[in-house]
Amino acid sequence: MSESRKLLRYSLALAFLTLAFAGLLWDLEWTPRNNAVHDLGPTQIDAADAPPSDPASFVNMFIGTTNGGHVFPGATLPHGMVKVGMDTDSPGNHAGYDADPIYSVTGFSQLHDDGTGGNIPLSNFKIFPSANCSTFETCTTSIFDRKLLRKLLIHGAPDDSASPGYFSTNLSSGVRVELTATRRTSLQRHTFPPSKTGILPRINVDISNDGQMSAISPTVEIDPKTGRVTGGASFQASFGPGRYNAFTCVDFRLASPPGLSVSVSGVSPTEYGVWSDGGPFLNTTSGTQLSNAGSQLGALLSFRPISRFLPTTILVRSGVSFISAEQACSNAEAEIPSFDFESVGSAARAEWNDLLGRVRVGMASGLEDTRELLYSSLYRTHISPADYTEENPSWNSTEPYYDSFYCNWDTYRTLYPLLSLHDPARFALIVRGMINIQQNEGWLPECRGATQQQWVQGGSNGDPILAEFFVKFTNQSTALNVTTDALYNALLADAEKQAPNFDLQGREALAWNTYNFLPLDLYGYGGSYQARTVSRALEYAFDDFSISQVAKILNKTDDSTKYAGRAENFVILWGPNVTVPGGPDSVLGMFQPRYLNGSSQYVDPRHCSANDPTHSTCYLDPNNVDGFYEGSPLLYSQYVPHDNALLIDLQGGPQNFISRLDFIIDNGYFDVTDEPGQQIPFMYHYANRPGLSTQRSRQTIAQFFNLSVDGLPGNDDSGAMGSYAFFNLAGLYPLPATRQLLLSSPYFPSISFYNPVLKSTTTIRVKNFSGNPENGTGGAVFVKSVTIDGKPWKSTCFIDWDVFENGSTVELELTSDISLPCGSTSDTLPPSLSTGGYA
Ligand SMILES: *[C@@H]1O[C@H](CO)[C@@H](O)[C@H](O)[C@H]1NC(C)=O
Ligand SMILES: *[C@@H]1O[C@H](CO)[C@@H](O)[C@H](O)[C@H]1NC(C)=O
Ligand SMILES: *[C@@H]1O[C@H](CO)[C@@H](O)[C@H](O)[C@H]1NC(C)=O
Ligand SMILES: *[C@@H]1O[C@H](CO)[C@@H](O)[C@H](O)[C@H]1NC(C)=O
Ligand SMILES: *[C@@H]1O[C@H](CO)[C@@H](O)[C@H](O)[C@H]1NC(C)=O
Ligand SMILES: *[C@@H]1O[C@H](CO)[C@@H](O)[C@H](O)[C@H]1NC(C)=O
Ligand SMILES: *[C@@H]1O[C@H](CO)[C@@H](O)[C@H](O)[C@H]1NC(C)=O
Ligand SMILES: *[C@@H]1O[C@H](CO)[C@@H](O)[C@H](O)[C@H]1NC(C)=O
Ligand SMILES: *[C@@H]1O[C@H](CO)[C@@H](O)[C@H](O)[C@H]1NC(C)=O
Ligand SMILES: *[C@@H]1O[C@H](CO)[C@@H](O)[C@H](O)[C@H]1NC(C)=O
Ligand SMILES: *[C@@H]1O[C@H](CO)[C@@H](O)[C@H](O)[C@H]1NC(C)=O
Ligand SMILES: *[C@@H]1O[C@H](CO)[C@@H](O)[C@H](O)[C@H]1NC(C)=O
């Protein structure tokens, strides 16, 4: 849930919007499902090696688009800058859209994020079709007056459809709007119904109304000959104090309505004018001509219908830039020179298919919904961060520039490890962009959005992202143009340089490096020094672990030892005698904040949990000096991903550790929406009970993830939840910045990953797949034995990255016996720092 907890959770009385809705959308897909390929009949046929011809057709774009998921269902390329989508007047419209049909459409804007919290990000430059104004002057242009409901399907769901790279809707005005995109430009196709009364089709270009209606100094210019509209403004960032400038350049073409073949030409608007709060002013060409310019500003253009008996189609091309309106125009001209909607749409889909097709699953009957969940989760892994290369307003560089790191705290755990499996070239570009930010601003980005630094929640969680890349692609990084020295220096800067304001970048490094914890009563190091002292220290510990992993590969032995040592400093915060009020005696010991003098401050282990008697939220608030961010002491006491062996010792041995995990999950202390607790279902592996992990992981998926519009628990968090669900469905759980992945069983007879940089295909295959228990409980899903390329592998609990490097085949034998251990020797447990570390 990350930064969103303060947002109002609104509940919808939407019982009818259930799985039936997802099913309906399915039937409205842009390209029909290709049943011939996937309908494999009742017997298991392992098709993992056959590339899916159109994996984009497995993506359900509407999962998590209501009830606080904040998922973006519009059109974008993988990691594209422009994300063009519908905006509704719903509360919490962080991604613009809401699937609840009670909300009206306010426009189709060019920039969005996916699954974020904070204030509404982006949603700039809405295009709106007006089909009912009898005259230009009487046209309703303001965001409050122009808005419209969507048409409804028979089951009451809105008539919206989407697939990767494409979105369409039918408005109640009869206008059909379709969207597609290139990296920095959108193309919209607005088809107006025939108007027997001669009402002109009109397009409104709204410059000022971003998601927060925060524009300052908006400008707009209309070229009356071509109809070109240019403009821009300064807008408020979503999750930080900064403002950003954004610009657009909009051009129009009349076109043949889809499905007809009518020869149409012409661009010039028949009427044009600037609008403000006071309404549209015919023949004005610039916002500066308005004497009474209000808070809203835009342009309105009218076009001649192609016939009174045919629909009229207007193509609207919007270039976007964070630099200037001129650059927005050149982006548009370069990326979409021909206004060819079909070819832009199919290029976008082809790019998605190339990416999604690197993951393949073997099918058995009844797995269609699971495959849909898997590919939809994979799709959402590739919306953010976004490629803003050449759009950085703060410095010039030939390096890539990525933005919408929202936030690394959310995504480092599962999103980047998933990129390692199948998209390392993109990963390298993102890493280069992050290093370039460090070189220019001093620290790696943590929660960047709309070119601005935003609030830091944990530590410098760019560190494990860079380390994840380097540990897995040491030998490829030079070829991918990642400079080792620059990467290492960026890590050291985070670890050693005290940031002037560690709420925006870097860490409270002086305190951590001097005291080995963050004392509650230490004053003056630049940020909210008393806030979140325990959860920040735990993040710093993992960050330092990730640096030690890189140092080790670089043969920097002293550094490796130093950072591995710091990574173990979490022990200082352990309060051995703290118990849960009313809880079992076996749950003994908890992380607690400490003062400079070493004594600890008692914080109730239930604090910030669903069972907190004081109902604290533990949000990002300088006044929250209780030690924890968006998670209870109970939850954070399981958060030392690099040294679970030591944690088990602190918690009284494996049996107590297992009882504690059970207590946490069974009593509502596990919150899957809070990223620091996400590994909890898989932690039984470390106590040599992998079957319990498999079952808890499967129960988590069954309970919280499904195909419906509200099928996400909390925000998608820029793909953090998508990549998390993906790994659970794949039967893997990643340990970022290491060469190990925890192993469980996949939901498919096989799953394979093609890695284009390593040029390897790795397949995990189940010898005797017999299906998935519906609620995640029981079943013959527990790993009994593992072979790698035909040779027995020592552990059922983890595999090494070598498997992916070599392009191996991992074969699993499954059983219904939940009680089997990882293996017969101690080296079959997944590694921990204190028991020898990570190979
Ligand atoms: C046109 O539709 C808008 C909603 O988009 C509505 O507010 C307005 O009253 C309508 N105007 C006319 C003339 O029907
Ligand atoms: C909208 O209406 C058109 C027919 O005008 C139809 O082809 C399309 O499927 C409908 N739905 C969407 C979401 O475009
Ligand atoms: C707008 O311009 C047109 C064409 O030049 C002219 O006929 C019309 O009178 C003008 N209207 C106003 C309100 O200026
Ligand atoms: C980048 O280079 C361009 C062209 O030389 C220049 O106009 C612009 O001011 C530079 N931007 C920054 C942020 O230095
Ligand atoms: C990386 O390259 C080094 C030196 O060439 C080699 O020793 C090592 O085995 C390689 N590592 C992997 C994982 O391929
Ligand atoms: C790395 O940089 C070189 C030199 O600029 C360039 O030729 C090559 O294409 C780049 N490779 C990648 C993967 O970006
Ligand atoms: C580190 O040392 C090993 C063993 O001596 C060697 O193979 C490797 O190339 C060295 N790595 C670096 C980055 O120097
Ligand atoms: C925890 O309790 C034990 C036994 O009562 C006691 O010896 C020890 O000092 C306590 N530790 C702390 C840190 O309070
Ligand atoms: C440690 O410091 C805190 C905060 O100043 C104080 O409340 C506590 O009594 C001190 N503990 C000891 C043992 O001096
Ligand atoms: C779907 O997932 C949501 C969010 O986790 C959950 O609230 C809902 O109960 C699930 N629905 C079903 C039918 O399992
Ligand atoms: C899950 O399904 C199994 C098998 O149908 C059933 O025995 C069990 O009670 C169910 N558990 C839950 C928590 O629904
Ligand atoms: C898989 O095979 C093993 C041994 O051959 C057997 O013990 C187990 O029951 C089988 N599981 C299933 C689901 O068929």
Specify the helix fraction band: 10-25%
| Unreliable spans | 1-47
How many distinct beta strands? 28
**CA-based gyration radius:** 27 Å
Q: What is the CATH class designation of the domain at 31-355? A: Mainly Beta
- Average pLDDT across residues? 92
Bound molecule types: 2-acetamido-2-deoxy-beta-D-glucopyranose
**Silhouette:** globular
Please, how many helices?
Answer: 20
Q: Kindly, what is the distance between the CA atoms of the first and last residues, rounded to a whole number of angstroms? A: 33 Å
Q: What is the makeup of the main sheet? A: 8 strands, antiparallel
What class do helices, strands and sheet pairing give? alpha+beta
CATH topology of the domain at 31-355: Beta-galactosidase, Chain A, domain 5
Strand order of the largest sheet: 4-5-6-7-15-11-10-9
Strand content: 15-25%
CATH architecture of the domain at 31-355: Distorted Sandwich
Protein described:
By secondary structure, the protein is of the alpha+beta class. Among the domains are: 31-355, Beta-galactosidase, Chain A, domain 5; 691-839, GH92 mannosidase fold (2-Layer Sandwich), CATH 3.30.2080.10. It is 24% helix and 18% strand. The chain contains 20 helices and 28 strands. The strands form 7 sheets. An 8-stranded antiparallel β-sheet has the order 4-5-6-7-15-11-10-9. A hairpin with a 2-residue loop joins strand 4 and strand 5 (166-170). The protein is globular, with a radius of gyration of 27 Å. The two termini are 33 Å apart. Residues 1-47 have low confidence and may be disordered. The structure holds 2-acetamido-2-deoxy-beta-D-glucopyranose (12 copies). This is Glycoside hydrolase family 92 protein. Keywords: Hydrolase. It comes from Artomyces pyxidatus.
